[in-house]
Amino acid sequence: MASDHVDVLIVGAGLSGIGAAVHLRHNCPKKSYAVLEARGAIGGTWDLFRYPGIRSDSDMYTLGYSFKPWTNPKAIADGDAIREYVRDTAREHDVERHIRFHHRVLRAEWDSATARWTVHAHRDDTGEEVVLTCAFLFTCSGYYRYDEGYTPDFPGVDRYAGQLVHPQHWPADLDHSGKRVVVIGSGATAVTLVPALAERAAHVTMLQRSPTYVISLPSRDVLADALRRWLPAKAAYPVVRWKNVLLGVANFQLSRRAPGVMKGLLRRAAKGRLPVGYDIDRHFSPRYNPWDQRLCVVPDGNLFDSVKAGRASVVTDTIDTFTERGIRLTSGEELPADIVVTATGLNLLALGGMTVAVDGAEVDLADTVAYKGMMLSGVPNFAMTIGYTNASWTLKADLVATYVCRLLRHLDATGQQIVTPVAPATGELEPIIDLKAGYVLRAVDQLPKQGPAAPWRLHQNYPRDVLLMRHGRLTDSGVRFSRAAPAPAEPAVGQPLAARDADAPADTPVA
Ligand SMILES: Cc1cc2nc3c(=O)[nH]c(=O)nc-3n(C[C@H](O)[C@H](O)[C@H](O)COP(=O)(O)OP(=O)(O)OC[C@H]3O[C@@H](n4cnc5c(N)ncnc54)[C@H](O)[C@@H]3O)c2cc1C
Description:
Helix content is 29%, strand content 22%. By secondary structure, it is an alpha/beta fold. Helix 1 (15-27) runs parallel beside helix 4, helix 5 packs across helix 10 (302-308) and helix 11 packs parallel to helix 13 (462-471). The structure holds flavin-adenine dinucleotide (FAD). Residues 11-17, 36-39, 44-45, 49, 56-58, 63, 104-105, 140-142, 146, 189, 352-354, 385, 387, 392-393 line the site of flavin-adenine dinucleotide (FAD).
C-alpha cells in the first residue's frame, strides 16, 4: 500500500481538473499537488462520449478556459477538438506529470487534529489500494456516473432483435449506414445525434415523450472571425468571451422575466427553418418555460435542416412496447428500427461517488449546504466544481479554481490552516441545481442544498460571481478559519500581529 502527501489533491482530469491544476500552478506555485483520475486518459466527458456528431452545445469562447484562447474557427466545437484542447492545456502547463491515472477515489477522511485529509483510492489497473494525505481536497469529478447512463425500463425491450445503444457507450464499430434508426430522447444528445446519423442512415426518427426548446446558433462567431484578422488571439478572446457571456445573461434574464416573449421568439425561429405547415406546437413547443430546462442548441439549424430534407423526423408520443422489429407507440403507430439509441440521459453522481467523513462522522451530502456553490457546510478544506446550468461549465470552474487559490494564499498569509463553511442558521433551503430536467429530479434528494441568500445562494450569473469570487471578501459570517494545533500560551507583549494571528486558537472565526 503506497502512501504520500501533497498540499492539494485534485480529483478528476477533465476540463475542470486540468483547469484547476493550471490555476494552482500559476497562483500557488509553491503548493505541491497531484491529480487522481479514475480513467486512463485526460478529458473526462470529452474523452468518454464518442457518439457520432459529439460536440459542445455552448460556444467554446465561454466553454474554453479564461487563460487559453480558443483559436479553432468553430465556436460550437466537435468532441475531438475539445479533447485536444484540454490535453494541449495539460501539456503546455506541465500538468500531465502530476496526473495519476487509473486512481479511483473511494473515500476521504478529514482529521481536525492534523488538519489533513486521508484519501483512499483504488487502482483500477493493478487492483492496488492507495492512500494519500493532503491539506486541501479539490474535487473536479463532474456530475454523473461514468459506468452507466440512464435507461428507463422499456416494456418488451428483451424481445427487440435490433441493436440497442446508449450514447454513453457508443460501439466504435457500429455502422449505421443505410439503417433505420430511432433515437429516443429530446435533450442535447438526441438533437446532436439525429442530424449526424441522418447523414448516412436510411432514416432517423427522434422519438420524444415531450418537446424541448431547440435554438439554432451559428457554428462560427462573426465577431471572433472579424477580430481574428486584426488582433492577436489573447486580445480577441476576452472580447468575444464577454460578448457571449452578456448575450447568455440577457437570454436567461429575458426567459425568466418575460417567458412568453422568449417562447414566441423561439417558436418563430423554429418555424422559419421547418417545412411549411409543420406541427411546431406538437413537436417543438414544450409545456415548461424556457430555461426551466437547458435550451438545446443546434449549430446552423442542422436538426431542422434534416427534418426539412426528410432525412429525419420527429415523433412525439409514448412507448407502448418494444417489438421484435422496433417500437410500438401508444397511438398504435409502429416505428421499425434496425438501431434504437436510448438518448435518455445520465445518472447524476455527486463527488464521483466517493464517501466523505469528518472527524469520524460520515457526511451525508443532502445535509450540507453549499457555500458560494463550491464548498460544503461542515466540511473543512474542501471544494468541488459544479458548473453553471444556464451558461458554460468552465466559466464557473475557472472562478472556483481562482477562489480556491485565493483561499490557500489567505490561509498561508494569516497563518491559519483550516477553512470550514458553517451552515446558515435560518432560511429555507433549496436544491443546489434548480433545473427541472429528469436527471436532476431523479437525484435531487442526494445532493447538497443551497441557502436563501449570499454566500449560500447560487445566482447562476457569471458577472455577479466574478465580483463575488474573484474580487469579493474571503472572510464572512459563513466561513470559519482555524488551526489544527491547540493554542499555545498568550503571545508575548510586543509580538507582531501577524504572528499573533498565526497562533490563534482553533476555530477562531476571522471577521
Ligand atoms: C455529452 C455532453 C455534452 C456536454 N456539453 C456541454 C457544453 O456544451 N457546455 C457545457 O457547459 N457543458 C457541457 N456538458 C457538461 C460537461 O460535463 C462539462 O462541460 C465539462 O466537461 C465538465 O468537466 P469536468 O471536468 O467538471 O467533469 P467531467 O468531464 O465529467 O470529468 C470528470 C473527471 O473526473 C473523473 N472522476 C470522476 N469520479 C472520480 C473518482 N471518484 N476518482 C477519480 N476520478 C474521478 C472522471 O473519470 C473524469 O475524467 C456536457 C456534458 C455531456 C455529458
